[in-house]
Specification:
321 residues; alpha/beta; 6-stranded mixed β-sheet; 5-stranded parallel β-sheet; 48% helix; 18% strand; elongated; disordered N terminus; binds 4-hydroxy-3-methoxybenzoate
Length: 321
């Protein structure tokens, strides 16, 4: 505790010093912390590519200064993110922290933003409560209840009266399970079973067997981006599709980055989400085309959160000069 307090005091002092150094410098630095390796690497890859796209489209000048984006890899580990955030604030004197691929990472870093008064732009992590963890947080991704409530409205109106839920066992999974189940019950449907898998190295076989045995009309699933393809493969291998169990989900499961590799099991899956690469607006068509001109993969909702986050940061810097 003493060490931590001392550290935060040092951090606060360093930030004051950074303020005056910044006035003289002709570069503004933005610290982006992402899982570039490890289980959530696809999220890091998507957001990194979207930030580069934003800079290619809009240039790297803000209020007469050059924007420098420093990307750090936390491998999806919260303690690492926290340390990297401290280094970015104290040593690199970044004007904003951004990224944050997983909820525990955003929550672990929030105190650094508060203590150093550094704006923190959450581009991915989606547990509802994250924005309350620091007054310096703004989020450009989404929350799970937004998607889960929409599914809980749609399903009972489309013949789904009995469901099993399956979520990753941490913040966003808790949100998805609660808001989906509550809405289903409000609409007169029955939740037969609530199943969970660990965030790290999940094994879907046992829960899929339990889900199958419960004989629901549908299974509702939330898993973090990057786990969907493996889940869909096992869903088909265990024959849940053949048993007539419909798969409904948040869009994290049918992630645009992995969708093309999922095969026919993905046909007929229904999800609700705040973003789809197929959204036919002029703005999205331009976004997808320009993203794909620079990358060999399709943008997913993580890319959208990264692109929007860059826009928010640069607009704020322009407004405040
Ligand atoms: C989270 C939520 C992460 C939804 C996700 O993918 C996701 C999170 C990495 O809050 O940890 O799709």
């Amino acid at each position: 505790m003493i060490t931590r307090r001392h550290h935060l005091a040092v951090l606060a002092a360093a930030t004051v010093a950074a303020g005056s150094a910044l006035a003289q410098s002709d570069t503004v630095k933005i610290g982006v912390i992402l899982p570039m390796t490890g289980q959530q690497a696809s999220t890091g890859k998507q957001i990194d590519a979207a930030i580069k796209l934003w800079l290619a489209q809009n240039g790297n000048k803000v209020a007469g200064k050059k924007v420098e984006v420093i990307v750090k890899d936390d491998a999806g580990v919260a303690d690492t993110s926290r340390r990297l955030a401290q280094e970015l604030v104290v040593n690199d004197k970044v004007v904003a922290l951004a990224g944050f691929g997983l909820t525990p990472i955003a929550l672990a870093t929030a105190p650094i933003a508060t203590q150093s008064k550094t704006p923190m732009v959450v581009m991915a992590a989606a547990t509802s409560s994250i924005t309350e963890a620091s007054p310096y947080i703004v989020r450009t991704s989404f929350t799970l209840p937004q998607a889960a409530v929409a599914m809980g409205e749609w399903a009972p109106k489309n013949g789904i009266k009995k469901v099993v839920t399956l979520v990753a066992d941490y913040g966003p999974g808790n949100d998805a399970e609660k808001y989906f189940a509550d809405r289903m019950q409000l609409n007169g449907a029955q939740v037969l079973e609530k199943l969970r898998t660990p965030l790290r190295a999940p094994d879907f076989a046992p829960v899929l067997q339990k889900a199958r045995d419960a004989k629901p009309d549908a299974i509702f699933v939330f898993l973090p981006s990057g786990q969907g393809a493996q889940f869909m493969k096992q869903f088909a291998e265990r024959g849940l599709d053949k048993a007539g169990i419909k798969l409904i989900a948040t869009g994290d499961v049918t992630d645009d980055d992995q969708l093309a590799d999922m095969g026919d099991v993905a046909l007929g899956v229904v999800n609700a989400h705040h973003y789809s690469a197929a959204h036919p607006s002029a703005m999205n068509k331009k976004f997808v085309a320009e993203f794909q001109a620079l990358n060999k993969f399709r943008p997913n909702f993580m890319a959208m959160g990264g692109w929007d986050g860059m826009r928010v940061i640069v607009n704020a810097l322009n407004t405040t000069k």
